[in-house]
Design brief:
Layout: E1 5-9, E2 15-20, H1 21-27, E3 30-42, E4 45-53, E5 64-65, E6 68-71, H2 78-81, H3 83-89, E7 99-112, E8 115-129, E9 144-151, H4 152-159, E10 166-172, E11 179-184, H5 196-205
Parallel strand pairs: 3-8
Antiparallel strand pairs: 1-2, 3-4, 3-6, 4-5, 4-9, 7-8, 9-10, 10-11
Helix pairs in contact: 4-5
């Protein structure tokens, strides 16, 4: 994980060169990332899919987060970064199938695995409507602890502060995946910038049904 080489940028997004992922997170270099949020339509409405990060992650281990996301390695463009869908979820999706939702800049500081981090990202955010059930995904055990889904309107209400928790159904990663149900609160998610997840939820509601 720490051997990834990233292109790094200054505060105005001018290139500065390259740095390892470990160095970028230690020194707070801006770098580019790919976010893709998945939703699916069911007989009871549209649902939001999100992953649980593995406990070994270098930032926000064990937290719930974007369905699939990752860093752009040095020289990589955004269309190539869509590989994260196949790596983390086991699905091959052409980049042209993704709907651009927004671009966000965000920085966070914290400690994980006994090491301090300063993560500064420029993230291109995409949406995808994929109607396959949770059991059809093949999760990357090293990165993803589980994949969960919850009612999209309820998720929006959660992050707008109207309800205290949502009920989510999920499947764990590993050689023997297990179905699970959890009550999830907003503070169990990676703390993205204010309004980010609510904006994503609203954008996913607007995706045309397949």
């Amino acid at each position: 994980m720490t051997s990834e080489l990233l292109d790094i940028y200054d505060d105005e997004d001018n290139p500065l060169g390259t740095a390892s992922r470990q160095e970028a997170h230690a020194k707070g270099y801006w770098h580019h990332t790919f976010h893709c949020w998945l939703a699916r339509d069911t007989s009871t409405g549209r649902r939001l899919l999100f992953q649980q990060r593995q406990d070994t992650k270098d930032t926000f281990p064990g937290c719930y987060d974007i369905t699939a996301a990752g860093h752009l390695t040095s020289g990589e463009d955004m269309s190539q970064a869509a590989r994260e869908l196949e790596e983390e979820l086991g699905i091959h999706v052409p980049f042209t199938y993704l709907t651009p939702l927004m671009t966000v800049r965000y920085e966070s500081k914290g400690t994980a695995q006994g090491t301090s981090f300063w993560d500064r990202e420029v993230s291109s955010v995409f949406g995808l409507l994929s109607n396959q059930p949770l059991e059809a995904y093949c999760l990357q055990q090293e990165e993803v602890a589980g994949l969960y889904e919850a009612d999209l309107e309820q998720a929006l209400a959660l992050f707008e502060g109207h309800i205290p928790f949502i009920e989510a159904q999920g499947i764990t990663s590993g050689p023997n995946p297990e179905k699970t149900r959890r009550l999830i609160t907003p503070d169990q998610f990676v703390p993205h910038q204010a309004g980010y997840i609510t904006s994503v939820c609203r954008a996913l509601m607007e995706l045309p049904s397949q």
